[in-house]
Amino acid sequence: MCAKATMEEFEALLNEALEIDTPQEGAVVKGKVIAIEAGQAIIDVGYKMEGRVDLKEFSNPGEAPSIAIGDEVEVYLDRVENARGEAVISREKARREEAWDRLEKAYAAEERVDGAIFGRVKGGFTVDLGGAVAFLPGSQVDVRPVRDAGPLMGLKQPFQILKMDRRRGNIVVSRRAILEESRAEQRAEVISKLAEGQIVDGVVKNITEYGAFVDLGGVDGLLHVTDMAWRRVNHPSEILSIGETVKVQVVKINKDTHRISLGMKQLQNDPWDSVETKFPIGSVHKGRVTNITDYGAFVELEAGVEGLVHVSEMSWTKKNVHPGKIVSTSQEVDVMVLEIDTAKRRVSLGLKQCMRNPWEVFAETHPVGTVIEGEVKNITEFGLFIGLDNDIDGMVHLSDLSWEQRGEDAIQNYRKGDMVKAAVTEVDVEKERISLSIKALDADTFSDAVDGVKRGSVITVTVTAIEDGGIEVEYNGMKSFIRRSDLARDRADQRPERFQVGDHVDVRVVNVDSKTRKLGVSIKAREIAEEKEAVEQYGSSDSGASLGDILGAALKGDK
């Protein structure tokens, strides 16, 4: 009985010893390097178990293996025994497990970890974090895009863990976060020593279309293109180059965003302080066209002082053309100062004021009555436009085209490009209007014919034609038509056939229309007027005398 108990105790102790001394598969165990051969290290992991590990598993990226006989190392036990009776172990897996434990603690504490970039993959790089491989996105390498990452390869440096998932074996790190943090600390220190208005030296680091970034010794400031010079600067590269040392003034510091605005022109005298003295209103100066827009052209009077010539002040005659067709960039022009607004730093200039008003010149050289010759530039529904000297036009209204024809008919006789003569009838300089007349070149036959003739006058006309509706008569070359109803007072005598061509007939003028150039005459009106006059002179309706008696007395009196 006693012997049986002793055997059970021994077996239990043996099993306990085996459990203690024999490592479990999937665990990290300590071992001792007992030999190095054929590129492998032979490691004794205890309990008469040995395993082999490639020497490359003992090296860091970019470094040679550091292992020697007698070194104690930790390895990962995959299997206790393989086909050859050796333990299957891995130094790399052991380092990985160790690294993950360490990295999880650092991630939880938001601490930095050391690592080295050793490879390039799509979208970024791979980083060895002392056994664990992490992904470094390309956007997290530096604060600015990196064109060549060669100098960073294999270099041991700190990283910030952004994200990690042990189950999936995924770690994402950032080098940029470390740089931004140190950069922020450095910026804060430098900015604390700067003050607005302070003059400092800086080095131009980068040039863009809108300005340049200047390094002030650890912190960058923006020198905007508008603060580089008082004059217009089209591109910063006109006055700056990368690497150049410049003297600048601190214009503004934003303590919250750590942004610094710099200026160079602030170190020079402001030319606008003396603009009103140098360029009084009404004075004429020579300037250079610096920029052309749809609404005008900018002209530089001196460095830092530009004025605008509005499109309406560019030409006396060219009203609806683009300024680029009148002036060109870099052209030197004479301009007159029209207005100055120092508060808004604006100068209004005039280009046409440096040339004489062509309408004034025309009025002086072409008084009313002057005959001119010009080309028909345009034909409109109300007249002709004739091209004159100095790119100005004169207009011939429909009513001034012909004495004989209606304006609508007379205008059909003209075409664009025709050369015509006309007389100047009016020049309105303020309204920039010149009135011309073609018919004024000829005598007004109507006015000459009816000179002295008034409404109510009795004139003698000659019958020139007999028609069913009346007769055509002529007076001093002017034709008129007497309708049948106006041929006599009595209806029985209102017969055109009682007249013959060549007869002379006394008629009364009932209308003189200079606009329509018509002379209205009537035999009936003359007879009625004569009857009325006879009644007034020789009797009345109350005297009992007949009309025949009155007319007889009138005729007798005439004899």
UniProtKB/TrEMBL annotation:
Keyword Ion transport: yes or no? no
Q: Which UniProt keywords apply?
A: Repeat, Ribonucleoprotein, Ribosomal protein, RNA-binding
Q: Which residues form the S1 motif domain?
A: 26-92, 110-176, 197-265, 282-352, 369-439, 456-524
Instruction: Give this protein's Gene Ontology molecular function annotations.
Output: mRNA binding; structural constituent of ribosome
| InterPro entries found in the cross-reference section | NA-bd_OB-fold, Ribos_protein_bS1-like, Ribosomal_bS1, Ribosomal_protein_S1-like, S1_domain
Per the record, its GO cellular-component terms are: cytosolic small ribosomal subunit
What GO terms describe the biological role, i.e. biological process, of this protein? Answer: translation
Keyword Repeat in record: yes
One matching Pfam family is S1
Q: Which family does it belong to?
A: Belongs to the bacterial ribosomal protein bS1 family.
What job does this protein perform? Binds mRNA; thus facilitating recognition of the initiation point. It is needed to translate mRNA with a short Shine-Dalgarno (SD) purine-rich sequence.
Output the NCBIfam families linked to this UniProt entry: PRK06299.1-2, PRK06299.1-5, rpsA
Q: What is this protein called?
A: 30S ribosomal protein S1
The organism of origin for this protein = Pseudothioclava arenosa
